[in-house]
Every structure is written in C-alpha cells, then in structure tokens.
Write a structure and sequence with these properties.
Elements: E1 27-31, H1 34-37, H2 50-55, H3 73-85, E2 91-95, H4 98-101, H5 110-125, E3 129-135, H6 141-144, H7 153-168, E4 175-180, H8 182-190, H9 202-226, E5 231-242, H10 248-271, H11 278-281, H12 293-297, E6 303-316, E7 322-324, H13 341-354, E8 361-366, H14 382-400, E9 405-411, E10 430-433, E11 438-441, H15 443-457
Parallel strand pairs: 1-2, 1-9, 2-3, 3-4, 4-5, 5-6, 6-8, 8-9
Antiparallel strand pairs: 6-7, 10-11
Helix pairs in contact: 3-5, 7-9, 8-9, 13-14
This protein binds beta-D-fucopyranose (FCB).
Catalytic activity: Hydrolysis of terminal, non-reducing beta-D-glucosyl residues with release of beta-D-glucose
Keywords: Carbohydrate metabolism, Cellulose degradation, Glycosidase, Hydrolase, Polysaccharide degradation
EC number: 3.2.1.21
Length: about 450
Amino acid sequence: MVFESSVALEEAFSPPADSVLWRKDFLMGAATAAYQIEGAVAEDGRIPSIWDTFSATPGKTLAGDTGAVACDHYHRWQDDVELLANLNVGAYRLSISWPRVMTQDGQPNAKGIAFYRNLLTALRAKGLKTFVTLYHWDLPQHLEDQGGWVNRDTVYRFAEYADMISKELAGLVDAWATLNEPWCSAMHGYGTGHHAPGKQDVAFATQAMHHLLLGHGLAVRHLRANDPAAQVGIVANVGRGTSTDSGAAGQRAAWLFELQHNNWILDPLLKKSYPTALWELWPGAEPSVQQGDMDIIGAPLDFLGINYYFRTNVVSDGKHGYLEVDLEGVERTQMGWEVYPDGLRHLLVGFHRDYPNLPPIYITENGMATDDEVVDDDVNDRQRISFLNRHLAAVDQAVKAGVDVRGYFIWSLMDNFEWAFGYERRFGIIHVDYATQKRTLKRSAKLVTQFLAERSAKS
Ligand code: FCB
C-alpha cells in the first residue's frame, strides 16, 4: 500500500512514566463482534440475520466476502480465550448474536445461549472482565422483513431479547452495552445503504435512529432489573470534523458534521432531545416521536463507550449541508482513514465540557487496519504500534484535562470480517490466516502483552 505521506512507524510500546496507562485500574482490553468472528451461521438453531442476506447479495461486500466462516470462533473459542488471556489484558468486549440466541417466535435458543454462557464463564475463570454488547448490527432477518428498525415494533422485539438474554446470562457480565454504534446502524444501514439492510433514505435513517435509541432505553430497564450488579451503558462512534476553510461557512460545516455524527446520538441520551439543526440539514426527515420516548431514551447510564477512528475534513456545500473533502499529504490507514489522535482528545474534552451528566467513559474501540503479512511467523505492524501509542497518549491527555476515562479496548483482538470491506482489511493485533485459521501474534500484541506484564509487576 502506498501512503500519501511518510507513515509513523514504531518498534516500542512505551507510555511515559506519568501516563494513566500505568495505573493498574485503567482497564486495557481487546474487542470483537459476533458476526465478524464467529462463523457457524447456520448451526445450532441460529437464524439468518440482515448481514447474512446483505453479504450474500452480489456487489455489497468487497470480493463478495461473507461472515459464514469468518474466524470460526464459534468452534475455536476455547483456544481464542487462551490467546486473549495470555495477552495480559484485563477485559474482553464481545457481542451476542441475537439470531443465535432467540428463535423466530421469540423463544430462547438453548444451544446458542449455552455458547455465550460457556464463553463468559471461561473468560471470568481467566480473571477477565466481560463487556457484552447486545446489538452489534446483526438484526434477525425476519424482523427486517417487517421493516426492521424503521418499524417501531422492532423496538419491542429488541426489549424482549434484552430481557431474555440478561436473565439467562445474569452474573456473568461486568458491563452490558445495549447497542454498538447506532449511527452506523441507522445511517449506513438505512441512509447510505453501505451496510445491511442497504436501504437508502435519510428519513428511514432518522426513524431507525429513534427506534434504536428507544430500544436502548427499554433494554436498560431490563438489564438493570435482571442483572443489578452489572454496569449498563451504550457504545457510540464519534467523529472529529474540521475544515480547512477558516471562514464562517467552513466552521459551520465542521460544526454540522460533528452535530450529525455526535450530538444526534449524545443529545437524546444525555439531554433528552434531538438537536433541531438536524432537521434543517435533512428537511422533512424528522422522526415520529411518541410522548414519553425521550424520557425512556435519556435514562441514566453507568458508562458511555466511545469508538474513535479518524478525522474528516469538510467544507460547506453552499446550501444547508457540508461536503467531505480528503486532505492531501496526511497519514492514512489501509481503510484510507486519516490517523488523527488529537481528534480523540478534542472530542473527549468537548463532551466533558458540554454534557454535565457525562458518565464515565470507556474507549470501546480504537485501532487501525494495515495490510499485514506473516514473515517467518512474525508480523511487524509498526504503524499500528505507533497508532496505539499516539491514541493512548491522547487518552492520557484527556484524563489529565479532567475527563473520566476508565479503560481502552483495542479494535480488534484478531483480524476479522470488516463488514462491507470483507477480509482484506486487517484490524487485529492477532493475524488470522483465513485458509488455515492459524492465529499469529503481531508485534503490537506482543508489545502490549509485555507492557501489561511490566505494569502488573510494578509495586
Ligand atoms: C466500527 C465497528 C467495528 C469495526 C470497526 C473497524 O465501526 O463497530 O465492528 O468494524 O468499525
């Protein structure tokens, strides 16, 4: 891969002595999601999800890749838990596949539930904290056939699922997250169509967002009732928007970008309202909201999960909106995303300032894709090491500025099915050879392991 500028490469994972990273109670973990790693899509009663349908549709994913086998984690989970525990991390973030644990008529699927019970029990036995997401984008297809997240009925089906699974797995989960990245589910799923189910109407996206958030709020009630010792939160992806145009139009474009990516989700959760400027950006797309919905959505949270990847440069479109314009000469990842650690610091400090009731934060995803290759059983992912160093330094700066960040999860534990980009994009700190399913620790994994061993040896 050719980069547009010199790429920062590093050989060492070395937080400075005064970094929050050295604090033993600063949780370090790795993250995955069900459809991206499990495979076994038709086993033990799992029913189809929107991602099975979407990825099997020609033209929707790179090279026509699907999650049918993925990392075969459904069969290899014991070895994977072993690998994970050997990294010395304190926590693992995973998601539950709704179509694996619930039948089409809403009954628990015992075999699917047993998979997660065994997995969580094994993780706990290794001393790992378990961060479990209920919905990482794999809606049962039969619900999409009824309109999916655009249909209010899906909200109630999601609440039933949350109720059922939190009863089944109570006591095995340290932290429940209701949703992963509702922005992507709503916008990419129903607005741009880049993700399943591939619908393209901004009014669908805003209605889907409202229903996702309402489903979150109802799920929170069940999680609290069924598993009172666990923490309850949600995971949002956030974006940093800046403009090379320092004039008023450029600055408004950047503001609008962040409003659309961040405040669209955080305002309802933390202020019980949508930012009204959204309806100028998307005329006619205001969702239908029923009385009482915003109070349900705005229920107090124990934590907020933040996923951060890159910065976007925007300019005004000359009307109500903005246009994304790629900056030249900046460091980028295999995804084409700009490496911009200061965006993470900036956003965290801004949220802390703007939301007085901001709950404690976990960085639930951060990481990068590189076109890693195994050479002599070694993967020298020096750009990733540098990326992690710089983003963790940004987190440290935010903590020093007063933001309550309690932990950081690397995306991802292992290379996996990167949605519309299939298997080409490698985000793991563990390399996966998809032909043999062999796992190889990349240097980033080895260095993080070494650092965590040093940290725990410190008095
Ligand atoms: C996030 C997703 C995660 C992964 C990373 C790269 O948007 O939550 O599943 O695909 O991006």
